[in-house]
Every structure is written in C-alpha cells, then in structure tokens.
Amino acid sequence: MTTDEKIYVAGPICFFPRGGEIWQSRRREAQYYGFTVTLPNDNKRPPAQSKEHGAYLTLKNCRDSINLSTGIIADLENFRGSEPDGGTIYEIGMAYGHDCRCYAFTRDKRPMGVKYNAGTYTDGGILDFKGRKLPHIDLPFGVCVLGACKVIEGTFSDALKAYMCDLEEESKKKAMRGYSLKKEAPRQTIARGTRPIVYVADIFRYEEDAAEKYAEMKKVLEAHGFDAIVPTDAAPGVPVLEDTGDVLEMVYNQFDHYQQHVRNCDIILANLTDYEGYEPSSDVAFECGMADQLGKKLFAWMEDGRNMVNRIPSHENNQGRMLDANGYSVENNNAPINLMFGASFKIFDGGFEAAVEKMAEELKA
User: Fold this and answer.
1) Orientation of helix 156-173 relative to helix 19-32, angle to 10°
2) Model pTM score
3) Coil, strand, or helix at residue 61?
4) Which of 31, 39, 36 is nearest to 13 (CA)?
5) Residue 302 CA from chain centroid, whole number
6) Residue pLDDT, tens place only, 139-151
7) CB-hemisphere CA count at 13 Å for 104?
8) Residue 164 resides in a domain
9) 1 in a structural domain
10) What are the C-alpha distances in Å from 295 to residues 37, 173, 269, 345?
C-alpha cells in the first residue's frame, strides 16, 4: 500500500521499561504498509539550559511532529488510575485541532461502569473512590476521546488496519458521482466583544449541581473583566439534540459543544487537579491540547501544585530515573504534571478564585 498519510504515534509507552523499543516497532509496522511516521523524539534537540527548558523543547518536538502529520494513532492505556495518560489525550486534542484523522486503541472497551473497579453501587448509579458520581457509566472513555477518535478494541496493529481500511474506502468513494471528501472544520461562532472570553475547562460538568457551581464561577470571572463560557453552556451554531436513545449520537453532540467552546474562547482556564488517579480528566486534557493547537492563551490551576516527583510516590533507580510503583518513569521537570501541560500552561497552585485573580494579573502585566 502506498499513501501520503503521515501518522503520529502517541501513548504513555515512553514511560515504560523498553518503551523506546515498542515505539520503534510500531513505527516499522506502519512504514511497512507505506505510511510515514512521526514520533515526538524524531527531531534532535539543542542542549537544554534547565529542566524547564528541556520540557519546552520536548513539547516543541511533539507540536512540530503533529503539525507535519495527517493522522494520529493513540494508545488509551489507563495510566496511574482509571484515566488514560493525560499527555496522550493532550496530543489527541492537538491533532484534532490540526484536522488530523484521530484513531485510538484500547485492550478494554467495556463501559466504565463495568471496568471501574473501585466503585460503590448506589440506587442512583456508581460512586467513584472519592465518593463522586461516576459519569457516563455506559461509555468506555470520556466524551472528548469518543467524539474525536475512532476507538478500536485491540492493539496498535488493529488500529492501523482500521486506518488503512478507511483509506481504501475513501479511494473508492472518490469515483462516486457527486461525492466529496472535503469537510470544513468548525469555526468561531461567537462575535468578539471588548472583554476576553474565558473557557473554564473543569470537572464540575459531571456533577448534578454543575449549573449552580458554574454560575458562581462566572461571577468571579466577570468581576475580573472576563466573559465566561463553561462546559454546560449552549454553543452558538451547535444544536442541542433531543435524547434519541442513541448513546453515541448524544455523545457526539455533547462533544461538538465542548470543541466549539474551545474554538470560541480567547483563553482557556483548566482544572488540572487529579481526577481518577494521578491524571487529569480526559475531557479537560483534550480541551487543553486543542486550545494549544489553536493558539489560545493557556492557564490552569491544581489543588496540589507540588512537583510531580513529590506528588507521585516514586523512587530513584541506579540510572538516576524516578520510577513509580509499576516501574514507570515519573517526570522530573520542576512541574506538577506531565510536560505537555507543564511546558505550555501557566499553572497556579490552589483553587479557582485565586487562579482567576493571578491570571488577571498575568494578563495585565
């Protein structure tokens, strides 16, 4: 097979023992079928002047590689909890914002309500290990992952074959009379005023009292001179569908609202606090990566802003690498979270109101 497709391979395997070998094996498999492959470590970096500078250079390599790509295949392996690796989801968001084809694979596509093994069953649903109601128990992943990606149950090889099959079908459809493969990406649908528009990418969207909490958050932002969008808001140009009983149709409609909010804002203010384990919400992580790709101003807050190696229990091996209990590398970049966020976002330690105040000060400066 010959193709002009350039695939970016994403996943947390870079943190695994022998992860580099696995990465290269996936590259060789895709190349065998005629794909060009881009990896985050393809470009040689100049010497880093500090840990923070090294993280920035790595992020730049990732961004440059994605911007050369036409598609992404991402590994949705759960990572330090029941959420996929936040950095991988960030890369999916960047790729989606670049209009890439987005594919992902998982070894377990069962609904979260079935595979979440720390839940407490109640009459109203399932509570997670922190006592919060588990959202979307009938879905295997968050709305943004399912909305942006074709998710394949299986391995990288299975996702690659699905990608190739879709290309073959598209080649046949080119000969169909009146058929067009061209699709226009959604654009901004909110007219610009005099105040910056902030999108609050937060996890309150999953809670029953989200409307009340978001109303208070909007008041805080408005008091500091911002207009606010929150996940539960309507998105101009995106219809709100009546419940059709088709779960995936409703998922995509919800995703369409989220991605339009990112396109409509000037600034994203994201809650990167650990969600299920040591990773942020995958919906939030996706929105962060998409906002980065679209050139939005990037701010975030975390309730625990200590460096990652202090937040995640870890030990140093004889090569000087910090490892968690599973032997996965823990980043040591003087940031509280994966370098995709740490090198792109201004992250404030503390709560929402303090973050808004500090963000306003940063923007004035």
Assistant:
1) 30
2) 0.96
3) helix
4) 39
5) 16
6) 999 999 999 999 9
7) 32
8) yes
9) no
10) 25, 34, 14, 12
